[in-house]
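Continuing from the previous page...

OK, I double-checked the sequence for POP1 protein against my notes and this is the correct one:
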Amino acid sequence: KQAEKTVHQKKEQSKTKCRKARRRHINLVAEFNRRQRKNIWLETHIWHAKRFHMVKKWGYSLGDSPTEKCYRACYRAMTNGCLLQDLSYYCCLELTGKENELLKQLARICSIDTGLTFEEACCLSGRFEGSLNLYRADRYPEDMLGPVTFIWKPRNDSENRQLWIWLHPALKQDILRELKAIFQCIEPEEMYISEPVTASIQEENQVDVVLSLGKKRKKEDKEGEKAVPVKKIIGDGTRDPFQSYSWISQTTGIVISDRTMEVLRYRLIGPLSHSILTETLKAASLQTV
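Thanks. Re-ran it with the corrected sequence; updated structure tokens here:
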């Protein structure tokens, strides 16, 4: 009787998993994807979240101010070493088509009176990055859209050129709408959907396993939204992943593509920036086909 009594006195084993089990990779990815439904994370989000006060702006979660007094350390890095900033939240628009047609239409939204234009020789060769202010088509000096930076892909044997325009996410919709208007680009017949948004059967099974580990984690939230697949989210806070992100002109063949969060952007400040890049990046050997 005493033995039976001790058995009944034993507490039920807690259903909450230990910290090691809760921090398994598959659990973390599912949890991170769930937390990115409203605000997209940058690649360096985890690093910043541990050291900065985070703010939610323009559909992203960004580091606003440091939690520690690191201003002297940052100043020392800028003056003597190297300081890196993550600018991946800036939007990137890619224009592809014939160089003459691109320059002809882009000249309508900028002016030589403000400084450099897309036709500047040093920038057109692809060696340097340029910056300018964009206006609505044929409306200079009125109706300014905002400042942007751009870089051309160096020339090759093909007659088509590629141009990347970097702009602030607050200006993206207005500038994208203006570019689509001057190039007469329409949405293609096929809708482009980011691949990571769709999940395979195996990945859906993994989600079910993750969701069944604890009763607190439900497959559907209060709004009835389905759980995000266990896969990295590609997209940005300024674009619906289920909408087209590429437009083509039937008359000129110009293609406008939204490359936001597909091309990361970092800024290095300091006297050792060039040497750090030289040691980090290794040039690939040229291969002729």
